[in-house]
Amino acid sequence: MKFTKMQGIGNDYLYFNCFEEKIENPSELSIKLSDRHFGVGSDGIILIEPSDRADCRMDIYNADGSRAMMCGNGIRCVGKYVYERGLIKKDVLKVDTMSGVKTLYLDVKNGIVRSVKVDMGKPVFRSAAIPVQFPKETVIDEPITVDGVEYRITCVSMGNPHCILFADDVERIAIEKIGPKMEHNPIFPDRANIEFVQVLNSGEAKMRVWERGSGETWACGTGACASAVSCAVNHKTGRKVKMHLKGGDLSIEWDDQTDTVFMQGPAEFVFEGTVNLSK
């Protein structure tokens, strides 16, 4: 079976054209192929499928085999893939995801998709809807103690659960220690993506991300959106923020008229390959 490896500022996935092929046991396949020593190496796999309510559907499986609801970097790559491969020749297209239908705006020049702007929808702060089990209706700059250390967290859903912690220097964070403890904290019944954010000025912030099911990744689109929104609600930045991630930059705007979050960034092909699924 053919696959295409793509990346959005370092967040890499293996893409399968399920308009033409059928994947059995995608969870097991993702575990096998995502291994960076014995597999291809990726943050997971994404199946591009037909949809009866959008131009196409994307189905995401993390590196540990768990199913993801949404991926901001992954959906930009889907937009580039379907346009440049001739599956859907639209510069405005709709993609069905487990967190709803998302609209993509493709910046195309000479047949090449240079960047993709995604309507990521409205942020959700209500604790029960994220979900986060907390005694308050919302979790904004609230304390939580982990291993005897108090952290202040802000929780938001961008179609998947995020927990944001602000830090003076994200490079000094022991993310491999704190990340999994936060991800699996009992207050998150579905686990959570954990973002560590360092505010640089009113329009810029730096972040690292511990992704639910994948560990630290170079980028997370929904995480960048959740982090930018958290910066704004905590009065640390304005509503337009350039987020600097390990793999590159994303431009995030939280529209004050519609409450919608828009994310813009690149998407790139890495290489093509084939895999024998019988082995």
TrEMBL record:
Signal peptide positions (record): none
GO molecular function: diaminopimelate epimerase activity
Catalytic reaction(s) noted: (2S,6S)-2,6-diaminopimelate = meso-2,6-diaminopimelate
Record pathway: Amino-acid biosynthesis; L-lysine biosynthesis via DAP pathway; DL-2,6-diaminopimelate from LL-2,6-diaminopimelate: step 1/1
Binding-site residues, substrate: N11, N62, G72, N73, N160, N193, E211, R212, G221, T222
Annotated site location: Could be important to modulate the pK values of the two catalytic cysteine residues: H162, E211
Main location group: cytoplasm
InterPro entries, A to Z: DAP_epimerase_AS (IPR018510), DAP_epimerase_DapF (IPR001653)
Subcellular location: Cytoplasm
UniProt KW keywords: Amino-acid biosynthesis, Cytoplasm, Isomerase, Lysine biosynthesis
Transmembrane segments: none
SUPFAM superfamilies membership: Diaminopimelate epimerase-like
EC number of the protein: 5.1.1.7
Name of a matching Pfam family: DAP_epimerase
Active site: C71 (proton donor), C71, C220 (proton acceptor)
Quaternary state and interactors: Homodimer.
Family: Belongs to the diaminopimelate epimerase family.
Function: Catalyzes the stereoinversion of LL-2,6-diaminopimelate (L,L-DAP) to meso-diaminopimelate (meso-DAP), a precursor of L-lysine and an essential component of the bacterial peptidoglycan.
Record PANTHER family: DIAMINOPIMELATE EPIMERASE (PTHR31689:SF0), DIAMINOPIMELATE EPIMERASE, CHLOROPLASTIC (PTHR31689)
Protein name, UniProt field: Diaminopimelate epimerase
Protein's organism: Caproiciproducens galactitolivorans
